[in-house]
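Input:
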Amino acid sequence: MTAMFSMTDVTVCYDNVEAVRNVSLSVEEGQIVTVIGPNGAGKTTLLMAAIGLLASRGRMIFQGNDIGKIPVEDRVERRLCLVPEKRELFSDMSVADNLLLGSYSLRDRSGVAKTLDEVYDRFPRLKERQRQAAGTLSGGERQMLALGRALMAKPKLLMLDEPSLGLAPLIVREIFRTIASLRDLGVSILLVEQNARAALETADYGYVLETGEVVQSGPAKDLIHDPRLISAYLGGH
Amino acid sequence: MTSDIAAILGIDGIATGAVYALVAIGTVLIFTVTRVIFIPFGDIAAFTALTLAALDAKRFPGTGALVVILACLATLIEILSLLRAGEFRLLPRALAFYLVLPLAVVGAAWLTMRLDPPLAVRLVLALMLIMPISPLLDRIVFRPIADGTVLLLLTVSVALHFALVGLGLLFFGPEGVRTEPLTSLSTEFAGVLISGQTMLIVIAALVFSGLLYLFFDYTLVGKSLRATAVNRTGSRLMGIRPARAGTIAYLLGSLMAGVSGILIAPVNTVFYDSGFLIGLKAFVGAIVGGMTSYPGAVIGAVGVGILESFASFESSALKDVIVFSLLIPILIWRSLASLHSEEEIEE
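Output:
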């Protein structure tokens, strides 16, 4: 397998403070990779830098091309997509319009209607609420919409920032089932999560980020049995 | 005041308000997409009237030279910015968009004018010549400070208005103009004579507002503009470029302001500096709509027009004082009633 996305020695600063320091990671084609760690470890910062919303130092390669200096919109056109922690939905616009705008970056518009049907098949609740304003949806529905909107762009690498944040346990299970099923579609996923157990159960590979640095990495099935991680992040089960 | 006079003042006010409404819609459009309160829209309206008057008089308007100078400046700034960023592959597109396209518009207008075109073509030429001005000003003035605060952008916008007034004097001269009415028809409604020009103003305002509504609701580009207005970060994550959305918004806003300039020119004498009051009154209308609501801005602008009409009857000298005094209770009401958006809180 080849790395479809890699970061090498990436550093991100807020003013003069290094929020992420010399982080290197890679995502191979068709893989789910998770980054876990405590609050304030720099997980969200890392994804913001990967999509280009924050400036960074170091190398960032996506499908063989250096994307470190190109703007967000160009990264999205290359089908690198982010579902941010805040979802960033268009709250005054309808569910259908939000989904349609997800496909904005696609030059070939011929498959948009088919992709929309696929998203509605995956999330029937969104089809029921297609005329409703996004701002009126429940937390779980908003997350489904954020995921569905990202899928409309036919992503090659989908980056998810805390997709389970603030959701009821039942919905969290549904979201993680969906994430796992996306792998079958050939979508590679970089998943940032505080719910370390659910993330490691879903992922193929994991990185542990603490105070802006990668302190541990390995196959997810090994990390989930690591005694240090069990006591620090997995609730001692 | 008799009911006949009240009806005449009311109709007059609605027509004036319809002109302000077009400018107010442009103001809301630009503000929501770019966060710039674009005070010079009034100047764009006045420049359109002056451009049309020059074309009517078979003179090539100063607008042509203004567009050429702005296009050269914008191209220079864009090229320097691309060279600094090492984005050499974007140079041809920048040259085509910022230099070739505006120059082609000016060239086409110049050539068409030689053919002594009819009024309909002159109207199109006036709009064509006016529309590049705002997007070029955006590139020169606002793009470098796009991440600044709303207050900074407003301050620069006011400064830009004064610069444009100076340029207006330079390119159009101090004389006022009044173009010929677009129609000589008139009709009587409930005993009140309504001129064709008044009806045309109201119909044009309705048609252009309707077209804008259709554009926003039924086209992907329109939806992308709404998305940029609702959530800038979210729209960037969809691949929508704020700068491109801004350019489209400026073009559409200029079209609205240009149409209002064409409509007002046969009714009022327009000078190089007449735009300030048009822009400011449209701004009051836009504030009534909270700077974000199109229907609110239209209602506010028509309200301003009606108030102005009645105020001129009561005291012509104080009409502007009365209209602008309206701002005080509205601002108090708005500041008490409005909820701050997440973006404002973050800012």
